[in-house]
Amino acid sequence: MLNIRPNPKFPISTNLFKTKTLPSKLKSTLSEDSPTDQSSSSSSSSSGKIKRLVLSQEERTKLNPYSDRDFYAYPRFVTHVDDGFISTLTDLYRERLRPEFEILDLMSSWVSHLPQEVQYKRVVGHGLNAEELSKNPRLDYFFVKDLNEDQKFELESCSFDAVLCTVSVQYLQQPEKVFAEVFRVLKPGGVFVVSFSNRMFYEKAISAWRDGIEYSRVQLVKQYFQSVEGFTQPEVIKKTPAADAAQGDKLPFSWSMGLLGLIPASDPFYAVIAYRNFKPIYE
């Protein structure tokens, strides 16, 4: 069941929730019936169509088979990547997201890494821990849902300009279905930004991700996009420690300092980006 909550930093009338009536701000984007049901009023042309499955059953397995809800039951108010990764991601958002955008932050937490100086039209968050999501100052609303149990979003088709998924794609056991749902809720020309590094909760990452290397993981995410009809050709953006090291090698004693561990290795940054139907050109 979908659990929709307002962010307390964006208060609205509590009577709306006592009567289980959705806030007017959400009525246009949330439906009571399953949006992917064949009887849905949404046209089939707006739905994401899965062309092929990327993963085998074995590749979808996790070392820890127990509920993800239990694993994420307690909040973790930490960042799972370093400052360099976060800075690169924020710059990417600054470049690709516009203030008038309505954004879905998928598999989010207590921070969204959006540029602080930009106020977007609306940001809706999704995740597994309500306490983390309630602390995220960028979210206007959020909902709690386990995408490994149910991949359907109770969200109207063509309702978001951008969907974000930060350092979490490695935990999806049904990525093809999730990417198809993302396609459905995106407006034509909407962008899906999937970012990740080499960090993970090892026991909760799927086998295909655990057994891969960084190059193969990039290819895997590209295949997720390509498995759904209608996404543009995926674009890859990366910033790896090797590139940073080339600059560092120009510094005096950089080699010996690195050998002694005095220059810490930075997290590699990867983002795979695609658009629904076409990539828009803004003036």
Automatic annotation (TrEMBL):
Keyword Signal: no
InterPro entries named in the record: Methyltransf_11, SAM-dependent_MTases_sf
Annotated region described as Disordered, given as residue ranges: 26-51
UniProt keyword list: Methyltransferase, Transferase
GO annotation (BP), single: methylation
Domain of life per record: Eukaryota
One Gene Ontology MF term: S-adenosylmethionine-dependent methyltransferase activity
Ranges where the Methyltransferase type domain occurs: 152-194
Keyword Transferase included in the entry's annotation: yes
Gene3D superfamilies according to UniProt: Vaccinia Virus protein VP39 (3.40.50.150)
A Pfam family it matches: Methyltransf_11
Official protein name in the record: Methyltransferase type
